[in-house]
Every structure is written in structure tokens, then in C-alpha cells.
Amino acid sequence: MSLTAGVVAVQGDVAEHAGAIERACARRDRDVEVIEIRDSGLVPDCDLLAMPGGESTTISRLIHADGIAPEIREHVDAGKPLFATCAGLIVASRDAADDRVDELGLLDVTVERNAFGRQRDSFEAPLDVDGLDEPFPAVFIRAPAIDEVGSADVLASWDGRPVAVRQGPVLATAFHPELTPDDRLHDLAFFGNDRATIESQTD
Description:
Layout: E1 3-8, H1 14-27, E2 32-37, E3 48-51, H2 56-65, H3 69-77, E4 82-85, H4 87-92, E5 93-95, E6 107-112, E7 123-127, E8 136-140, E9 145-149, E10 153-158, E11 161-167, E12 170-173, H5 184-191, H6 195-202
Parallel strand pairs: 1-2, 1-3, 3-4, 4-12, 5-6
Antiparallel strand pairs: 6-9, 7-8, 10-11, 11-12
Helix pairs in contact: 1-5
């Protein structure tokens, strides 16, 4: 049975995430339909969900205004995978240290926005990630960093700071895995932890 994957499309690298999801599902011999989510009512149909980067204050404002935020929380509460990248990590956190961000509280972490510099400070680095056999080519663009980690598990760090975490069905990165042809993190997010939940929902 085909999977339905949603990409929260209020901002960010929507097409790039869609392509990475399709490649990750192909690696698992799973058919997938990727839909763009800009309004409420679509997330409940999704088996997989991605929340891209962009501007965290804008993403936060729009997903709450459009009624998408509570559906994302319900998706995670049901044990369905969510992959949040860059600004998506900020929005998914419990504390973004910014009153303009209405966090979803899905990850027991606090974050610092733009911790690795502004746009001109963007860089790519080979990153060792728990669950991957080889380093991942991580692209950091105005990347946040994680300041404090509660009950989440740290999967990767850079320069002594956590940049990838997992808590239950949520995997989040401070960098942009969708900007590389490497789909291993999408595979890890969607099939490397709660695969039994996905299979039981789609058999």
C-alpha cells in the first residue's frame, strides 16, 4: 500500500524535501505520494511528515494561523515520523529563546538561532551521525544549534554543539540534508526508528 508523505509548504525547500522523500521511499521499495501542506486538514492523511527550514518566526506564525500546528502535534502523538530541518528544528523545540516563535514543544531541547553565523558563513562539513555508516555531507546555512538537551537523544554534534537529535518519532537537524543528493537522513528519519508503526498503518 502506498505511503502519503506531507511537506509543510508554508516556506523552505519544499521540492528538495519531496525529492529526498521519494528517493528514500524508493530505497525501501515503497510507493509514496508527496503532498504539499499549506492548509489544515491534510496532515491527518499523512504517514510521514517533513517540516523544512526557512524563517522560524514566519513558519511558526503560519502553521498556527492556518490550523496546521495542532495537526502536527497529533501526527507525532500517534507515533508517526516527523523530520524537522533547520528552522523546522527551532519550531519543533520546547524553547527557541525567541518570543516571536510559538514552539510546538515536540523536542525537549532549547536552541540558539543562527548559532553558526549568517548566510555568508554557510559551510558544508562531513558529519558523523549515529545510525549512518559513513559521514553525512551536512550543509549549514544560518544554522541553529542546540543549547540544552533534555530527554532527546543526540545523534550528531559539530564544533562541540548538538546539531541532530531524535525524540520518539521526531528527528531534527540544524542543517539542510535536502540540499544534497544523499537521502540517508530522510531514510533514517522515516524508516530507521518507527518503521513498525508505518508498516502497521499501511498494510
